[in-house]
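Need the bound structure for adenine, inputs here:
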Amino acid sequence: MRIDIITSVPELLTSPLNESILRRAQDKGLVEIVVHNLHDYAHDRRRTTDDYPFGGEAGMVMKCEPVFELTDKLRAERDYDEIIYTSPDGRRYDQHEANRLSTLRNLIILCGHYKGIDHRIREHLITRELSIGDYVLTGGELAACVIADSVVRILPGAIGDEASALTDCFQDDLLAPPVYTRPAEFRGWRVPDVLLSGNFAEIDRWHDQQALERTRRLRPDLLERG
Ligand code: ADE
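Answer from helper R.:
Posting the output first, comments after.
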């Protein structure tokens, strides 16, 4: 898989994309993540990627030319399955969308910008607009990191324990059951006996019951969706 991320602040993406599981997934060749600095495609003296909006409103708007110059170049090199724009008014991002994106070959993520981007980019280039929640970030870079992280970690081979991505919270619209590690008793708080029983059928049943009970209590909306 290849993910191209387009931003005017590439520094914001450096650490989240280059540590831990994302680093290892790239080193193993499971994914290639390429960050593009939009300023490299702006040709005025100050390498400007935004401009004042027509109509006199406050704030700056991302310009068409650098975005189209870069994406024309990328699209001439390979086909892209989705060109994503991160924006608070996009469709709400969730695990189902992460799963879907993880099956694709080539993605572009265009990071949103303060006031927005020239609407012609949204009309004529973007194929998917995604929001990571109902709040406003300073730009789309953190949202792009969230999307890249959640997609890459479920690529086969990205996580050491293959089973663990499948039993993630949300994978079947359920919250994950509680987990415990040693010691079996800490400050008088004991781990549930069933987990120490060695009876794996019983343990599986307990996990299922706990997942359902926690989801009912904490996120009943997930059960109503199904
Ligand atoms: N850019 C600013 N806020 C955002 C959000 N909530 N989701 C995605 N991109 C954003």
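Comments: The mean pLDDT is 95. Residues 86-88, 112, 131-133, 135-137, 140, 143 surround adenine (CB under 6 Å).
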